DNA sequence: TTGACGCATATCCATATGGGTATATGATTC
DNA sequence: GAATCATATACCCATATGGATATGCGTCAA
């Protein structure tokens, strides 16, 4: 089996920087494909491809307007990501388990000398 | 160019369900590779591979203990994901822009008749 | 009707997977 | 030192990319 399809879920869809960029642009306002092409500075087919992925996971909605297609953001599918990541918030914002982390590193340093780049001691 | 490497950043690393599962397991407590293998029910080399990816993006730290390698969670690299997704929170939790969304759909329905599967009218 | 515009798709390519099996490397025990 | 345990790597494969170019197709203007 290869890697999961980018259309498998929002996690895979937003793993691509360009797609996050598109969502960021759409967060401001509804935009046509050519609008996005102009701002992204990449060829149109590529933008269409990314938009297709975003559409398939439901992150954008489309609306026909003449010969243009207006894309609109739909953040709903991002909620699962938010919910998942959220549970780890304490692991970076608080000093929980910071103690044994330091202890473990000390113990390691005792045995072998390595550079750990351990900076930023939060008060 | 192909898809970005899974080791490119946390976004790509956690796009894989199995890796999120591993992080979830490590969230509870430090674990050895064989501990993870037992709980995940997959072959050991695969777990080691996933752990390598997680290590490369800094999501886990390792500590040698005899012939075992204890892996520990490090949520830090998840913060960028949290920060990014967070900016979209209103797009799913509030009813902002819900109005023109409905209007747009109505307008579309006027012109062409399609099944939109539009359910769940919030409160 | 003809032509230009706006987008989506079809191909083609190089690359990086996730999964499996076999094997190398290290540490521990006998 | 030999045997064993715990992990990491090396390969193999099928698959799905992101990017680029060429082309199809519906819409609007002349």
Question: How does this model look, in words?
Answer:
Two copies of one chain form a homodimer. By secondary structure, the first copy, chain A, is mainly α. Chain A is 51% helix and 11% strand. Chain A has seven helices and three strands, in the order ααβααββααα. In chain A, strands 1-3-2 form a three-stranded antiparallel beta sheet. In chain A, a hairpin with a 2-residue loop joins β2 and β3. Chain A is globular. Mean pLDDT of chain A is 83; it is low at 103-123. Chains A and B meet through α2, β2, α5, α6 and α7 of A and α2, β2, α5, α6 and α7 of B. The structure holds a DNA duplex (30 and 30 nucleotides).
What's the number of extended β-strand segments of chain A? 3
**Biggest interface, and residues per chain?**
A-B, 38 and 37 residues
| Uncertain spans of chain A | 103-123
Overall pLDDT score of chain A: 83
Beta-strand residue fraction of chain A: 5-15%
The major β-sheet of chain A equals: 3 strands, antiparallel
- Structural class computed from helices and strand pairing of chain A: mainly alpha
The rounded distance between the terminal residues' Cα atoms of chain A is 47 Å
Q: Strand-and-helix sequence of chain A, N→C?
A: HHEHHEEHHH
SS summary, helix count of chain A: 7
Radius of gyration of chain A: 21 Å
- Write out the strand line-up for the largest beta sheet of chain A, numbering strands in chain order: 1-3-2
The level of helicity of chain A is: 40-55%
Overall geometry of chain A: globular
- Oligomeric state as shown: homodimer
